[in-house]
Amino acid sequence: MAGESKGWDRNQMAARAAQELRDGMYVNLGIGIPTLVANYIPEGISVTLQSENGMLGMGPFPFEGEEDPDLINAGKQTITELPQTAYFDSATSFAMIRGGKIAMAILGAMEVSETGDLANWMIPGKLVKGMGGAMDLVAGVGRVVVVMDHTSKHGESKVLKACTLPLTGKAVVNRIITNLGVLDVVPGGLKIVVLADGVTEAELRAATEATILG
């Protein structure tokens, strides 16, 4: 597939996603590449990270040997606390999410459609941990940014006209960040915002099944 050897790596994708953050935001980071966003919060930007298992104000990942097994994020990774960290039960956590208190979620995905449909929780026939908070997040937060590889390991597009996997939410994604570039979901299809390093527009279009406008 054109463009596979070019573009952004996981850390560069996370750094690009961190540019979506605005000062004062409350933000939920999903499992996978999105957890790396915490390492790239721009200087001068103060954001509060929320974990749906009951933590507001997540710190960075701990150094080896300093892990606390009681401090984990929703993806079961060990994390650290901050002086201002607050803890609460799941009911309070989901009241924040469902009540529209979280400004943005940065999530991973298996598939995204040109209308902003998101599939990120299961592949039929494969053992998965379950939906988790993803369905509530995409329905309750102000903005949804997806960070994922543009194609599968077999070179098939994951940015589709219509998702083939069970949906997490319909018409919920605002922006898609992949190893090939950044795309916005707009009426009628997708719009290219920026191309990744070394990737041409033709290569991005060739790797995308969804409709790209312009």
Describe the overall structure.
This protein has a single domain (10-50, 87-207), classed as Glutaconate Coenzyme A-transferase. The mean pLDDT is 93. The chain has 214 residues and is an alpha/beta fold. The two termini are 22 Å apart. It is globular and about 50 Å long. The longest helix has 9 residues, at 10-18. Strand 2 (48-51) and strand 3 (55-58) form a beta hairpin. Helices cover 14% and strands 24% of the residues. The relative contact order is 0.18.
Characteristics:
Succinyl-CoA--3-ketoacid-CoA transferase; NagB/RpiA_transferase-like; transferase; alpha/beta; Glutaconate Coenzyme A-transferase; three-stranded mixed beta sheet; CoA-transferase activity; 24% strand
Show unreliable segments: none
Name of the level-1 CATH class: Alpha Beta
Oligomer: single chain
Radius of gyration: 17 Å
CATH topology: Glutaconate Coenzyme A-transferase
What's this, in brief?
The chain is an alpha/beta fold. The protein is 14% helix and 24% strand.
Write the layout of secondary structure elements.
Blueprint: H1 10-18, E1 26-29, E2 48-51, E3 55-58, E4 81-87, H2 90-98, E5 104-107, E6 111-113, E7 118-119, H3 134-140, E8 143-147, E9 159-160, E10 175-177, E11 181-186, E12 189-195, H4 201-206
Parallel strand pairs: 1-2, 1-5, 5-8, 6-9, 8-10
Antiparallel strand pairs: 2-3, 3-4, 6-7, 10-11, 11-12
InterPro entries: 3-oxoacid_CoA-transf_B, CoA_trans_fam_I, NagB/RpiA_transferase-like
GO molecular function: CoA-transferase activity
Keywords: Transferase
